């Protein structure tokens, strides 16, 4: 096969070099002398056995008084024409990864790393659809940084919560039981260890409670959605591992459940704003304002907090906070969290905001931090 008979009829650059030296009536030895290289090196290029390096392209450009890019582009065109076609799976994997956090989902054990055909089937089963382009925005009420749109990463997290919740056994949902349980929450807010009772209490009310570690850049603290009109789910990430954040997020989501927010696929759900960044914003949807107010009042009764703040600010001593927390029956870290937000001083008495994830992991259905919750595609 001649060097010109290449794929797509793109000849080897040596063919053009040969034409140049013939036009000048040079010999192969003449060109080698001009270039200052062994004659054999020129012969390998002319025979198509060696490509033109960037250095050789520059040298040939000087020898023939043309641009070095001319020979460099000839070499590139030849190499591209002879390059093997990529595995079709490359494009399909890129499509998946562009839409969803596939690599992270595999790492977390949500999907199995396998051939592209089986991987695509897994993704469709994960999102409960037969077409990758038909993955819906699940009706939900998710507390996250931007409530205007559910990103693919957030959607993947929500579907993982849904996948796990769908396999959890529970009793029928009772709004009256949940209201009674919510009213009784303060008794569990004194001691961080008491948090371990929450998953059981919610299950007794018919609420599926799932903890799924957040995905990178998802910025979700929690979500409320419904498997059907009688099956509420509360999912949390506990990405802010602090006692004040846990109780605020939990009560926020339970308010969504009690109000029926996010119920029904046609509803579209209520999306919650990241409370760390925008809990005091005035442009939130009404459902979010109601949930924020309920959560804040549960953490520290609003009238009690207002009275304490007026009397003590700006000279609030640590002993005053501890005493006030004891009087209202809350852990000091919960009171500190509320005061920090009011004062915009998030380092103030921060040591009281103890970690609580450890008390949840043994008592809840947890997916993340090295553990994969049992759920089938």
TrEMBL record:
InterPro entries: Cro/C1-type_HTH, Lambda_DNA-bd_dom_sf, Toxin_antidote_HigA. It holds the Pfam family HTH_3. Keywords: DNA-binding. Residues 17-71 form the HTH cro/C1-type domain. One of its GO terms (molecular function) is DNA binding. This is Addiction module antidote protein, HigA family. It comes from Sphingomonas jatrophae.
């Amino acid at each position: 096969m001649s060097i010109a008979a290449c794929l797509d009829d793109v000849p080897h650059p040596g063919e053009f070099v040969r034409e140049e030296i013939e036009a000048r009536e040079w010999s192969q030895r003449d060109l080698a002398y001009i270039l200052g290289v062994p004659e054999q090196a020129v012969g390998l290029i002319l025979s198509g056995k060696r490509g033109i390096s960037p250095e050789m392209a520059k040298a040939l450009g000087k020898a023939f008084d043309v641009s070095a890019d001319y020979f460099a582009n000839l070499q590139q065109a030849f190499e591209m024409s002879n390059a093997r076609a990529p595995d079709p799976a490359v494009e399909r994997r890129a499509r998946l990864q562009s839409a969803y956090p596939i690599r992270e989902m595999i790492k977390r054990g949500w999907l199995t790393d396998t051939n592209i055909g089986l991987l695509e089937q897994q993704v469709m089963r994960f999102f409960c659809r037969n077409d990758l382009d038909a993955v819906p925005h699940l009706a939900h009420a998710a507390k996250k940084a931007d409530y205007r749109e559910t990103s693919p990463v957030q959607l993947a997290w929500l579907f993982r919560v849904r996948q796990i919740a769908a396999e959890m056994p529970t009793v029928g949902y009772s709004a009256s039981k949940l209201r009674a349980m919510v009213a009784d929450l303060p008794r569990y807010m004194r001691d961080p260890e008491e948090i371990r009772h929450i998953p059981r209490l919610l299950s007794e009310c018919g609420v599926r409670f799932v903890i799924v570690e957040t995905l990178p850049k998802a910025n979700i603290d929690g979500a409320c959605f419904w498997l059907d009109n009688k099956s509420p789910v509360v999912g949390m990430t506990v990405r802010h591992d602090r006692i004040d954040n846990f109780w605020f997020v939990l009560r926020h989501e339970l308010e969504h459940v009690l109000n029926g927010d996010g119920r029904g696929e046609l509803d579209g759900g209520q999306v919650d704003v990241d409370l760390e960044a925008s809990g005091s914003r005035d442009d939130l949807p009404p459902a979010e304002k109601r949930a924020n107010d309920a959560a804040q009042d549960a953490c520290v009764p609003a009238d009690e907090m207002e009275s304490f703040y007026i009397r003590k600010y700006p000279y609030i001593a640590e002993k005053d906070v501890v005493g006030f927390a004891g009087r209202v029956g809350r852990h000091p870290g919960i009171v500190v969290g509320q005061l920090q937000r009011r004062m915009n001083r998030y380092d103030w008495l921060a040591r009281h905001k103890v970690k609580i994830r450890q008390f949840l992991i043994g008592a809840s259905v947890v997916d993340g931090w090295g553990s994969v919750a049992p759920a089938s595609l």
